[in-house]
Design goal:
Layout (H helix, E strand, L loop, with lengths): L2 H8 L1 E4 L5 H25 L17 H11 L4 E8 L42 E6 L11 E2 L27 E2 L7 E5 L4 E2 L11 E8 L8 H4 L4 H4 L4 H7 L14 H4 L3
The protein binds 2-oxoglutaric acid (AKG).
C-alpha cells in the first residue's frame, strides 16, 4: 500500500532506506555512544537529545518523510516536538514487554507534563512518532508492536474504564520488523509497544515526534528541551526549520504568509 494511504487507513507506515545502508552502522554507534552524555545534558541542562545526534539529525529533514508529515497535517509548517534515545540494551526482558500506549499529545500517562488530549480523541492527526531503526528490528530484539487502525478506536490501552490489558497481547497486533536505516511512522493515536530484546546486541533506536505548527509545545520538559545556538547553527537548513522554535535566544518566529502555509 502507498505510504500516505497506509498511514491514513492503518495508522502507520514503514519508510524503507531513509538512511543509506553504508552510513547507518556508524550513526548507530555515534548515537549509542553519545547516549549517556545526551541524557545528562537533558536531565541537568534541558538540552534536547538532538544536540547529541549530529550524524543522525540531517536525516530528520528527509524529503519523503516530510512530504508524508505535511500531507497528514495538511500544512507546510512542521516541527519536531520531542527527540529521544530509545535503544534497548541486550537481554532486556522487562515483565511489561507489552506496554501498549498512545503517544503525546495522546499520552494519557505522560510524566513530563507536556499536556494531553482528553478522550474521546478528535479524528485529527496531531503528531507522528518516527521510530528510527538504527539496527535491524526483528522479533528477537523487540521490534515495535502496533495495533493497526486503532487511531480511530475511541478506547485506549490506558483509558480508565476501557477494560484493555495493555500489558498483554492485543488482537490484531502486528510486529513491525525492518532493516537498519528504515523509519516507522505512526499516528500518535495508534496503540503501540516496544518488545523485549532477547539478543546479545543492542536494539539501536531514536524517536522523533513531528507535530504541526498549531500544536502547543510550550508545556513539559520534553517539549521544551532546547538546542543551544552553536549546535543549532551547525544543522542543515531543513533541520533548523524543524527545531527553530527551540533554538535558545531565538527571534520571534514568523510562520509566513497564508499562501506559504498551504499544502496540497
Ligand atoms: O521503541 C519502540 O519500539 C517504541 C517506542 C515507543 O513506544 C514510544 O516512543 O512511545
Amino acid at each position: 500500500m502507498e505510504e500516505n494511504t497506509q498511514l491514513r487507513l492503518e495508522g502507520y507506515c514503514l519508510l524503507k532506506g531513509v538512511i543509506p545502508a553504508d552510513k547507518v552502522r556508524q550513526i548507530s554507534l555515534d548515537v549509542d555512544g553519545a547516549r549517556n552524555a545526551g541524557m545528562e545534558a537533558y536531565d541537568k541542562l534541558d538540552w534536547s537529545a538532538v544536540t547529541h545526534m549530529p550524524t543522525l539529525a540531517p536525516y530528520f529533514a528527509d524529503p519523503r518523510l516530510l512530504e508524508i508529515a505535511r500531507t497528514a497535517f495538511n500544512h507546510a509548517k512542521v516541527r519536531i516536538s520531542q527527540t529521544e534515545f530509545k535503544s534497548v540494551p541486550p537481554r532486556s526482558n522487562p515483565p511489561e514487554w507489552r506496554n501498549f500506549h498512545t503517544d503525546w499529545p495522546h499520552d494519557l500517562t505522560d510524566r513530563s507534563y507536556c499536556g494531553l488530549v482528553n478522550q474521546p480523541f478528535p479524528d485529527v492527526v496531531m503528531s507522528l512518532t518516527s521510530i528510527w531503526m538504527l539496527s535491524d528490528f526483528t522479533p528477537e530484539n523487540g521490534a515495535t508492536w502496533v495495533v493497526p487502525r486503532t487511531h480511530r478506536d475511541p478506547r485506549n490501552p490506558r483509558g480508565q474504564g476501557d477494560g484493555i490489558d495493555g500489558l498483554s497481547p492485543i488482537p490484531h497486533e502486528e510486529q513491525v520488523c525492518g532493516d537498519a536505516g528504515d523509519v516507522l511512522l505512526i499516528d500518535s493515536r495508534v496503540w503501540h509497544s516496544v518488545g523485549p530484546n532477547q539478543t546479545d546486541e543492542i536494539r539501536s533506536c531514536v524517536v522523533a515526534r513531528y507535530s504541526p505548527w498549531w500544536l502547543s509545545v510550550d508545556y513539559g520538559k520534553r517539549n521544551c528541551a532546547f538546542v543551544p545556538a552553536h549546535i543549532f547553527d551547525s544543522f542543515p537548513e531543513g533541520v533548523q526549520e524543524l527545531y527553530e522554535h527551540r533554538r535558545i535566544g531565538h527571534e520571534p518566529l514568523l510562520i509566513g504568509e497564508p499562501s506559504q502555509q498551504r499544502y496540497s
